[in-house]
Amino acid sequence: MRLLVVEDDPDVGDDLVRALGDAGFLVDLAVTGDDAWFRGDTENYAAVILDLGLPRLDGLSVLRRWRSAGRNFPVLILTARSEWTEKVEGIDAGADDYLAKPFAMGELVARMRALLRRAAGHGSPLIRIGRLTLDTSRMSAHVDTRAIRLSPLEYRFLEFLAHQRGGIAAVHDIAEHLYGTADAGDANAIEALVTRLRRKTGQGVVETRRGFGYVLSEDG
Amino acid sequence: MPLRSLRLRLLASAGAAIFLALGVAGLGLDLLFERHIERREALSMEDKAHELLAALRFDAGGKPLVDPPPSDNRFLQPASGLYWQVSAADGQAHSPSLWDQSLAFVPGAPDDHWRARRVPGPFAQGLLVIERMVEPDRSGRAVLVQMATDDSALSDTQREFGREMIGSLALLWLVLTAAAYGQVVLGLQPLGRIRVELDRMRRNPGARLSTDHPAEIDPLANAINSLADARAGDVDRARRRAADLAHGLKTPLAALAAQSRRAREAGADAAADGLDRAIAAAGAALEAELARSRSAVAREAQASSHANVLAAAEAVAAVIERTEAGERIVFEIDVPDNMELPFAASDLAEILGALMENAARFARRRVSVSGAVASGEVCVTVADDGPGIADTRAATALVRGGRLDEAGPGHGFGLAIVSDLVGATDGTLTLGTGPLGGLEVRLAWPVAAAS
């Protein structure tokens, strides 16, 4: 898998390249914002590690340009500033995860693997059920024509329901899918998830079948 | 010695000016009153003089003669205080009341009207005299007719009037001075307001003087505000430089960590261990300094800044949902959409970010963020369904540098930093066990501060 590392500090950049190389990735290094934008725009990377403090073109601008050009590879941002407003800005610009400097290399590699795992493996890119459209390549959703911002958990929930093809997804199965294990408390957590999701999608997308589970409405 | 108090100075000058004006007015009134009573007395004497004129003629020797004499008995009684006298070239006649005295003769009496004047008279009396030249017959001989009255009654009346006037003027002086005092107090009130506002500025450097002062005070308030802005700008720039320096050191620290990894790979474990310890210590010192600077900034936050709680919670949740710790967590956010807190949105993001990230780290499935206004407080509660902490350990978590381990060593979080920020924004922080069974962090700000 090819990764792009964008980092202007030579020591940190070299270290990232070596550590990710050791972890089995093919790594390209870009040291300026311009270079990063060009490479990201013209080559296919599985994921990008992007430092925000770059010379010439700052990291957030690079990220925004990629996203507006439809480049949707997962991006992990590295930032020297640890303020939450900056994290929020990064996520708003289209980042998928962030890590504050100084960081432990082990954690970075683990986060990278988690990002790639999340982005991996989708057959057909678009799934339409009723008013809901899921874009599996971007992990995004539309209700009618309105774009909905989903958390990864919310996305996986909707995707799981979509794969039931009109059938009811039982709470136990949903919990197994989302958490890997299931226990008695999960029903409440899933109910809370659905409540939060309905605030974004409005009524009539996810329906509750009391005592059984949840189903996606097929009504257009 | 010049008066130090502006109020006393204004009051003293107003009192003196009013006193002077009233004094001049008093003298004028006294003079007017004197002329008024003189004229009235002269008019009443003119009536008596007309009676006398009717009886005035010359005797054979050319001496003036009044026959019959005026009827008033006081003309008969010596030194009675009422006298008449007629004088011609060839002789003189006067009332018996003059006895062996006579009225002083001043030349130049008019012949077409009565002249009144005050003169010292006989019997040690002051006299009001009216006089004019008349020609009793067609012979062309002129007679000076004088009629006089003791002016002591007039003087008494005048004195009495003077006393009453002085009393009235004194009262007027008091009333006017009181009015001037009121004016001074009213006039200086804006200065008092400035003092209160300056005091508020001292306690909260982000506050500014209001701009609805009277036109005379406004330029002063604006000048003070500009000065405060300039100073705040300097402090802010200095602080920003310090923060930039701290942030700027983080990349070199990451580079040092890279060197440490290389050293370890080359077999120099001891050197790498030393480097790692130094990096950790430097990193912790930087974080502490940044947190301190953030609390200081929050303490000076602009009075006008406000943070929407729902927006901040949603934004922070959107970040955490994408991280490994948060990707399996459902955030239940139950906050009224118009709920606001009176400080910068970035500070609220910092507070909620640290608390929600920690909650997500220890939660099993759910983290709840709720907001409510109750009993004079705006409350924001962050709770999770994790293992929670024992009450006895809650206290130690809040000590600066203290770390709270829910799950075990190495997973602490700097609740003290959040506590500093909450304190700097006049809020309180309490730890407890929430409805989901895990840790509940309850933040509360007084409604007055929030509205």
From TrEMBL, chain A:
Record Gene3D superfamilies: 3.40.50.2300, 6.10.250.690, Winged helix-like DNA-binding domain superfamily/Winged helix DNA-binding domain
Any single Gene Ontology cellular-component annotation: cytosol
GO molecular function list: phosphorelay response regulator activity; transcription cis-regulatory region binding
Pfam families, A to Z: Response_reg (PF00072), Trans_reg_C (PF00486)
Modified residues (4-aspartylphosphate): 51
Membrane-spanning parts: none
Keyword Transcription in annotation: yes
Matches recorded under InterPro entries: CheY-like_superfamily, OmpR/PhoB-type_DNA-bd, Sig_transdc_resp-reg_C-effctor, Sig_transdc_resp-reg_receiver, WalR-like, WH-like_DNA-bd_sf
Residue ranges the UniProt entry marks as DNA-binding: 124-218
Taxonomic superkingdom: Bacteria
Response regulatory domain: residues covered: 2-116
Annotated ranges, domain OmpR/PhoB-type: 124-218
PROSITE patterns associated with the record: OMPR_PHOB, RESPONSE_REGULATORY
Keyword terms of this UniProt record: DNA-binding, Phosphoprotein, Transcription, Transcription regulation, Two-component regulatory system
GO biological process: regulation of DNA-templated transcription
Coiled coil regions in record: none
Protein name: DNA-binding response OmpR family regulator
Protein's organism: Sphingosinicella soli
Upper taxonomic lineage: Bacteria, Pseudomonadati, Pseudomonadota, Alphaproteobacteria, Sphingomonadales
TrEMBL record, chain B:
Primary localisation category: membrane
Keyword entries, A-Z: Kinase, Membrane, Phosphoprotein, Transferase, Transmembrane, Transmembrane helix
GO terms under cellular component: plasma membrane
Enzyme class: transferase
Matches recorded under InterPro entries: HATPase_C_sf, HATPase_dom, His_kinase_dom, Sig_transdc_His_kin-like_C, TCS_sensor_his_kinase
GO biological process terms on file: phosphorelay signal transduction system
SMART domains: HATPase_c
Transmembrane segments: 165-188
Entry annotated with the keyword Membrane: yes
Domain of life (superkingdom): Bacteria
Subcellular location: Membrane
Coiled coil feature spans: none
Protein EC: 2.7.13.3
Catalyzed reactions: ATP + protein L-histidine = ADP + protein N-phospho-L-histidine
Gene3D superfamilies found in the cross-reference section: Histidine kinase-like ATPase, C-terminal domain (3.30.565.10)
Pfam family, one: HATPase_c
Location of the Histidine kinase domain: 244-449
Gene Ontology terms for molecular function: protein histidine kinase activity
Protein's name in the database: histidine kinase
Organism: Sphingosinicella soli
Lineage of source species: Bacteria, Pseudomonadati, Pseudomonadota, Alphaproteobacteria, Sphingomonadales
